[in-house]
Amino acid sequence: MVTDGAATEPARVLVAADKFKGSLTAVQVAERVTAGLRRVVPEAAVETLPVADGGDGTVAAAVAAGFERREVRVTGPLGDELTAAYALRDGTAVVEMAEASGLQCLPEGVFAPLTATTYGTGELLRAALDAGARTIVLGVGGSATTDGGAGMLTALGARLLDGAGRPAGPGGGALRDLATADLSGLDTRLATTEIVLASDVDNPLTGPKGAAAVYGPQKGAAPEDVRTLDAALAHYATLLERAVGPGAAGLALAPGAGAAGGIGYGALVGLGAGFRPGIEVMLDVLGFAPALARATLVITGEGSLDEQTLHGKAPAGVASAARAAGVEVVAVCGRLTLPPHALHRAGIARAYALTDLEPDPAVCMAQAGPLLERLAEEIAREKLTR
Q: Which of 197, 261, 313, 368 pairs as cysteine with 145 (C-beta 3.0–4.6 A)?
């Protein structure tokens, strides 16, 4: 680029966006943005780093960053067998619970709020241990379950028994019948493995802000189901406190305990996991810092930039890190409900929405790719040709 006869350093763009849920994966978002930028500035230096915050799409983001994709047959949330994937590189595994126990694993329109199990997530963790992982990032979000991680712990060797000494049934509803919790049989490799609980929510396990009350309805739980699940999770926590000591009671109130139907609590108590905001963990794992150091402009985004974005979602994490490094950030999205002052507080100079080009949400969903390329062209004209 030349300005007033003097050569200036060309812009170096980092595209670090999450998926547009229901329309484009994070990888596809990066591809479309890159195509739009280069249509206006063919020589543009563009680096892509698809990101995720621990929910669905986390494994795909890790694979795009160079991790190896590993597939495993596991137990789905309804008890049927399915193929799930995790990612592995240099002794670090990225396990996405949504792959094995997520709403995406259910038939369309089918929910099982009282019986859906996290057993398959435990099987994914065991597969990562078998592959030699010494650090496991457990990304939670998008779950179909509210079982407090009981299924996960059972798959890893815990014994959860009812009053007759029989293994408890699947799902959060069965937790109300628990009489004994024995964690002594948990896989011994867990004690020497760093488990990081990566989540974008900090809810406690139970109560009005707990796993059942806040997220149960999204999984098909009726008001009576929510009450049943909340009481069952409280009973479960009491039994785990007896099994491992009084520290378990405090962990029920810890940030992330209520994540993904309480699997966060199971991970904190049973796996010795440490909680970190999902996007913060994933940016570290994906190598965001060195990529940011090479950039003069960051383009982030997700399907909907709204109030939830500001509470630990991927664009907020990307923008925060970029602002700290003094790098300008703009965002792309499907729909935008945040006012400019909220964007600026988050470190985003401007947001470009598909609905600016096409007001019909259905058309935006169907034509997200071409519309996103048009937004990227606009960004290129405004930011790369000055």
A: 261
Looking at residue 11, the DSSP 8-state letter turns out to be P
Question: For residue 166, how many other CB atoms are within 10 A of its CB?
Answer: 10
Low-confidence ranges of the chain (pLDDT < 50): 1-7
- 265: closest CA among 146, 113, 119? 146
- In this chain, the answer to whether the domains covering 2-49+294-383 and 58-279 adopt an identical fold is no
Bridge partner list, 198: 139, 276
Of 199, 103, 118, the closest CA to residue 151 belongs to 118
Residue ranges covered by each domain of the chain: 2-49+294-383, 58-279
Q: Which two tokens stand for residue 228?
A: 């049943």
> Could you give the CA distance from residue 378 to residue 191 in angstroms, rounded to a whole number?
52
3.40.140.10, 3.40.50.2000, 3.90.1510.10, 3.40.50.1000: CATH of 58-279: 3.90.1510.10
CATH topology of domain 2-49+294-383: Rossmann fold (3.40.50)
Is there a contact between 331 and 14 (Cβ–Cβ < 8 Å)?
A: no
Q: Given strand 135-139, what is the order of strands in its sheet? A: 68-75, 81-89, 92-96, 135-139, 194-199, 274-277
Which long-range contacts does 348-355 make (Cβ < 8 Å, 24+ apart)? 348/300, 348/315, 348/319, 351/301, 351/305, 352/378, 352/379, 353/305
| C-alpha to C-alpha distance for 107 and 366, rounded to whole angstroms | 22
Between the CA of residue 129 and those of 134, 149, 281, what are the distances in Å? Answer: 7, 18, 19
Contact 365, 22 (CB under 8 A): yes
> Structure pTM?
0.91
Task: Copy the structure tokens of residue 75.
Answer: 């137990």
Residues 295, 274: Cα–Cα separation, whole Å: 31
Q: Is the dihedral of CA 16, 21, 25, 31 positive or negative?
A: negative
